[in-house]
């Protein structure tokens, strides 16, 4: 094995030392220029930079993503300008367009259906399961009482431990039992609170069984495998919806309202029945959801993994949204679990997450769930509307053209000319480059 590039103590090096080591060992071409490039993304303010460095480990610079705004969201009659962080072109534009479209048709409605979070203690018990089940009501009580110091603050805020269930999972895995615990964590996402309580449950469970005379010597040997929250929160669900008479949809990209509504519903139903389409359909929803989740400093990996488990809850991967036409009314809705927090974690630490919260009027976790689900629905509406009318490439390629022109260092005037030229032509990198070369040659020969 080539160990030339092995290093110990990388984490102890300063940022500059880390960059120099990388430049020397991995970026041979121009180490000094490369080091300068990395450093050029440092924050001017040293204290602010220290804050970013503290979020993660072995940091050498900052990775920027665009922070955009989708205005005109009316949710339950309240107006929002929603912050969205995404690298994908057309996402913010599609959300903003859908927000405007529905603003003129009564706006979005949203409702939090429940807010329960789940945690698990996974353990092995090598004995008579009936005995464990019969002792459990007392054990459960002792577990709850043994965590009072951890739960007191959360209880003051209206949350805490809701329930602890003992699950016998031995039909799935030998000697495998589980405490499935449910929590209310109010405005916090609750990961730290839940995990602290679960680890205490794990310790107490071992002690309580060991000190209980009901159990034999062998049965007292309980092995806790792990204690951790579950990111699957099927009882922390929010519903967002829109509806209007079909005729009020108007003519969409030349398509009459009735035809559009029927085609739209059919497209959604395809995502309900076909996992291949459902995956892309839901990806479009997550384009909107993740953007808000990132902008507000929440954990997008948790939200993603939960959404996809939820989408498979009936045994096959399906659409997170649904649509129908009933008595001449077009209805479109989403139900999705969103375990979001508005206090604690990065929400309060990241300067731009704080700004997002301010922009949204310092929402409660429930309000943020409603905003985020609505943006997911709006995003889905924009995507399916485009797919069932003009196709997705038209809008996409317009943005793509801007990106290509930017990468070719085109001026604003050149970009406008390119937009005009490609209005009715296929866009590709080569075609755009050729157009720009010709434009510049022509300008050169005229001057
Ligand atoms: C692209 O990021 C998202 C879409 O593919 C979603 C969809 O197909 O519904 C446009």
Describe this structure in words.
- The structure is a single chain.
- Helices cover 49% and strands 18% of the residues.
- It has 447 residues and is an alpha+beta fold.
- Strands 3-8-10-9 form a 4-stranded antiparallel sheet. The protein has a 4-stranded antiparallel sheet with strand order 5-6-4-7.
- A hairpin with a 2-residue loop joins strand 1 and strand 2.
- Helix 1 (15-26) runs antiparallel to helix 2 (31-39) and helix 9 (275-295) packs across helix 13 (365-388).
- The longest helix is centred in the C-terminal third of the chain and has 24 residues, at 365-388.
- The N and C termini lie far apart (61 Å).
- The mean pLDDT is 94.
- The site of (R)-mevalonate (MEV) has 10 residues, from helix 9 and helix 13.
CATH superfamily of the largest domain: 3-hydroxy-3-methylglutaryl-coenzyme A Reductase, Chain A, domain 2
In which range does the helix fraction lie?
40-55%
> What's the arrangement of strands in the largest beta sheet?
3-8-10-9
| Helix and strand run | HHHEEHEEHHEEHEEHHHEEHHHHHH
Total E-strand runs: 10
Question: What Rg is obtained from the alpha carbons, in whole angstroms?
Answer: 27 Å
Overall, the morphology is globular
In the CATH scheme, the class of the largest domain would be Alpha Beta
Number of helices: 16
- The CATH architecture of the largest domain can be given as Alpha-Beta Complex
> pLDDT under 50 segments (min length 5)?
none
Q: Give the mean pLDDT.
A: 94
The CATH topology label of the largest domain is 3-hydroxy-3-methylglutaryl-coenzyme A Reductase, Chain A, domain 2
Q: Give the helix/strand class.
A: alpha+beta
Give the total of domains. Answer: 4
Largest sheet: 4 strands, antiparallel
């Amino acid at each position: 094995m080539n160990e030339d590039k092995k290093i110990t103590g990388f984490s102890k090096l300063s940022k500059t030392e880390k960059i120099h080591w990388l430049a020397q060992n991995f970026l041979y071409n121009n180490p000094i220029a490369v080091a300068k490039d990395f450093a050029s993304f440092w924050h001017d303010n040293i204290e602010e930079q220290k804050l970013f460095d503290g979020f993660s480990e072995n940091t050498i610079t900052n990775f920027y993503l665009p922070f955009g705004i989708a205005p005109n969201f009316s949710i339950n009659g309240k107006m929002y300008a929603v912050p969205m962080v995404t690298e994908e072109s057309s996402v913010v534009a599609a959300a903003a367009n859908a927000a405007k479209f529905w603003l003129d048709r009564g706006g979005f409605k949203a409702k939090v259906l429940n807010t329960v979070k789940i945690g698990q203690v996974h353990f092995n018990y090598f004995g008579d399961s009936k005995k464990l089940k019969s002792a459990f009501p007392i054990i459960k009580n002792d577990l709850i009482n043994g965590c009072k110091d951890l739960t007191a603050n959360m209880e003051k805020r209206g949350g805490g431990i809701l329930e602890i269930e003992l699950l016998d999972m031995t039909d799935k895995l030998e000697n495998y039992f589980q405490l499935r615990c449910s929590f209310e964590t109010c405005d916090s996402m609750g990961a730290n609170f839940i995990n602290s309580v679960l680890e205490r449950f794990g310790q107490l469970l071992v002690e309580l069984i060991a000190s209980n005379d009901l159990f034999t010597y062998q049965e007292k040997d309980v092995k806790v495998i792990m204690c951790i929250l579950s990111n699957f929160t099927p009882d922390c669900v929010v519903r967002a919806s829109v509806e209007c008479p079909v005729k009020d949809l108007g003519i969409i990209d030349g398509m009459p309202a009735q035809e559009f509504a029927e085609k739209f519903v059919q497209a959604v139903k395809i995502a309900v029945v076909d996992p291949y389409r459902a995956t892309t359909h839901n990806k479009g929803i997550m384009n909107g959801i993740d953007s808000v989740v990132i902008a507000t400093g929440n954990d997008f990996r948790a939200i993603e993994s939960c959404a996809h488990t939820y989408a498979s809850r009936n045994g096959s991967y399906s659409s997170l949204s649904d649509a129908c036409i009933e008595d001449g009314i077009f209805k479109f809705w989403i139900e999705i679990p969103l375990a979001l927090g508005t206090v604690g974690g990065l929400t309060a630490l990241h300067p731009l997450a704080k700004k997002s919260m301010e922009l949204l009027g310092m929402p409660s976790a429930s309000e943020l769930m409603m905003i985020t689900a609505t943006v997911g629905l709006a995003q889905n509406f924009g995507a399916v509307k485009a797919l069932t009318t003009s196709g997705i490439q038209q809008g996409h390629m317009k943005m793509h053209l801007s990106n290509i022109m930017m990468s070719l260092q085109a001026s604003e005037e050149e970009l406008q000319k390119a937009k005009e030229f490609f209005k009715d032509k296929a866009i590709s990198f080569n075609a755009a480059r050729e157009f720009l070369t010709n434009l510049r040659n022509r300008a050169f020969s005229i001057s």
